[in-house]
Amino acid sequence: MRVLTRSPEYEKEPVIMETINAIQFAGYAYDANLHYCDGTPLPMNKMSLARLSTDSPSEPPLPSPYLVQLQRSFANALKQFSVEEECAQPWPERQAPKFWNRSWLLFFRRLWHFVLRCFRTWKYRRMLPPCDQIYVNQIYESSSVGLIAKRDKGNETAALALLEAEAPDVPAPLLIDTFEDGDGNSIAAMTQVPGVQAISVLYRMTYQERRQFADDLGAAIAQIRQISNMSKPLFTGISKIRSQGSKIHDPCVGYEACGPFENEWDWNMFMTGGRPEFWRSSHPEAFLSEHESKFTHADLHLNNNLVDAGKLSGIIDWEISGFYPEYWEFAKGMHAGLNSRSSRPIHRQIWQGKYEAKGNWWRLSCLFFRGGLRALKSEGRRVRAQNTKGQKTPTRK
């Protein structure tokens, strides 16, 4: 059985449709009226995988992938027409004025916490949708407030509590409560932030609106970078007890939770797979100076920035935030995430070349993000295994 999963020009063997049992391709819907053959609606503004299959590829064969590519070209052309029509329309009415302000939300939370925890947990579980693998779900929605239930490992709840105490003006969700679902998973209940994902409306934002969006995002970043690291480790996740460090959950640092790191030498040793001397020889400018520890969102791609009527309205998904090297927000915004290419102009405006001038460290980070990290970590494990057999561990110079 042969399945075609990519364009014919990338196939090693000639594509003969009479021998193809299935075609798998990705689709992106810009129209809410599109449906699958069984009537299921195609999700809007979301990548979806589609699969066409047949038991007898010769009678008749599946449509040629070249026809699918041709249809894609026509669809993109039609999309441009719809974009021009949409951009000519004014922004929808702002949602933010309809939502409760922060004072009302804090008052509601205070009253709600007078209720016994056992009853609150029972109520939350009743509100959860009937699914086995919950990650993010909206458990309450109205015209003035919404509640989100999200599986949590402790880092995001601690981060939201820290933001509430130290940077209340940052447009982040407000933590309402924590509880365990029926399977013992820790769940965080937080407020819904008004707006839509920035990536879904970036195409219709004017250059002036984009500049203002970058300024507002930069102001929020400046606020969170003022939060002090009160723990002993220099680079760490967020702990409920501020004097203690915790593991880092950023997948660009490690495939599993790792750290915390006491100093930048330990961080560099880990990030270079135990071979900082190799990177120092090829990128000496990256190791010329030490970097401060700054509170970092670490995932500021355009899916995690919300826009309401063309303006920044919220920053969500703080689960991998922590205290990272001061360049990390820039490096992640430029070279990691689902839409780093679209977010680069925004981050360049925010940072004004600050870390590009400090030795192009982001180029080194880019190597980690785009495949080098796996090889480096593998090499690092090999080096550490040799060290445990009696070889001398590299010392800090």
TrEMBL record:
Residues 150-334 form the Aminoglycoside phosphotransferase domain. SUPFAM superfamilies: Protein kinase-like (PK-like). It holds the Pfam family APH. Coiled coil: none annotated. It comes from the Eukaryota. This is Aminoglycoside phosphotransferase domain-containing protein.
